[in-house]
Structure formats: C-alpha cells, structure tokens
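Curious: why this fold?
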Amino acid sequence: MPIRIPDGLPARDVLVKEGVQIMDESVAIRQDIRPLHIGLLNLMPNKIATETQIARLVGASPLQVELTLVRIGSHAAKNTSQEHLINFYHTWDEVKHRKFDGFIVTGAPIETLAFEDVTYWSELEQILDWTTTHVHSSFFVCWGAMAAAWHFHQVPKRLLDEKAFGVYRHRNLNPASPYLMGFSDDFQVSVSRWTEVRREDLTPDFDVLMESDQTGLCLLHEAFGNRLYIFNHIEYDSGTLAKEYFRDISAGKPITPPRNYFPDDDPERQPLNRWRSHAFLLFGNWINQVYQTTPFNMEDIGSGRKLAEAGE
C-alpha cells in the first residue's frame, strides 16, 4: 500500500522516481480503509531533505500510511521557506488534540547546547509529555532521542572529544526483537554527532538493541510508551554525510572526512550506501509493530498510561 502525503509536497517527485508508491490526499479520501496515522516532528534545518528521507522509509510498508508534518510553533525556521511551512506543516498546537499511531521526532544540529538552553525546549517538553497519552509508539532520532532520554529518565548526553562522523559497524544485540527482524548480526550505520549517551548512564527502562564498538549505543527500546531511541542517522541519504563534510569545509570548520564512507577515504570519490537496506528494515519493522499493536479505535491510544506513569 502507498504512503499518503499532502498534495504537491516536494518529496513526491523524488519518491515517485525511486519507485515508492504514493497516494495523494485527493485519492486517499476515497478509500474506505483506516490508514496508520504517523506524525513527523521535523526539527532539522533542511526540512525538505529530512521529510523526504523519512517518507521514503515509512512509505515502503505494504500498509497505507498517512504522514502529518509537524513543526515547533515557538521557533522560526530559517532554512525552509514560509510558503513550504504554511502549505505542508502544522504547528504542534494545531495537532495536539489528535491521536497518532506513530510519532517521529528528528534530530537537530544543537547537540552541544544544554537542553535547557534550546530556545524551544519548553514546547518540546510539552510535546514529549503529550506523546505519552496521544501516541501509540514514538520513534526518537539522534538529538531527539537524547532529548527524550533526558526528559523522561534524566539520562545525560556526554560531549565527545571529536565528532563521531562516518559509517560504522554495529552489532545486533537482540535478534529476537521484532524491531530487528531480518537484521544481520553485523551491519553498518551512518553516524554524525558530537555527543553520546553511555551505557552506564542508562536506567533499567531501556533494552539495548544495537551498539557499535567504535561509537557506542545506537538503538534502545523502552516498553512503556512503545518508544524507540536511535542515536545515529540510519535514515540518511547516500550523500548526506558528504554534504555535511563539504559544508563544514566551506565554513572553515575543523573537520576530517567521515570515516569508512568515501572509497579509499578520498572525498573526490562517490560514496557507497551500505546502510540503506537496514534502514528500510528498521522502519518497516517499526511500522509493522505499530500496525499489530495499535488500537483500531484511535481514541483508545494512550489510555491508561497517565495512571500507569503515576503509579495509580
């Protein structure tokens, strides 16, 4: 089944060329089937690139998925046109009355800031609390995962001596997990971050699913709230790390080429994507789990969690 996206979204043409099945809103409303409602809180500066990456992965499911693009209302985006935001995005205030089967929170290039110093931290905390009662399963990515781990469990992020930047080998620590169905024992993931979450700081709430000997924790699962936390960028395009590298070079920032990415570590050569298949697997497994476990009546989503969290 196709992914349902807003009519005219720029990602549409890219996805169609890649063979992803697309259903425009005007067609979807004529179908008599309940789609999965997935929200994407996009905190990245280049929103079009990020929404395309995520839509590509959730759109590979055989299920009909309706993707709702969400942005922070208290923060003015500088790298995406107002026209695009007005046409395709809702502020959280505009959707907070709704329930979602799944909700994705992206990373943001602000990871060296203390969480409390982020200008929209107060609104993000409200959103994270809202996911407990209004979202069946949440998927937090990179900085978004660190922010959620801090907000829910006071798990700190630690500053690295140098940027973890490149493509690194990871281990499948729980092959029986439904989120890792079909995963190899050893695989590669795209990494780009200045901070990390460490094993010794985790609370018992977390099950570690993926880890790298070089870059540490990658994927965690928390049973309460059906939450996934991924600290790396398995959703990245083939050329995203290259764009980040050449952007920093142009800005005069000290940066080394991403490791294990360019053939022979030569930035003049075209990089090969060695994580794409596992990206599709992970998001496909997540969508399948959401479909298998979410209530048919969306109003039942999150019911009882508030009492459970309060210990009542």
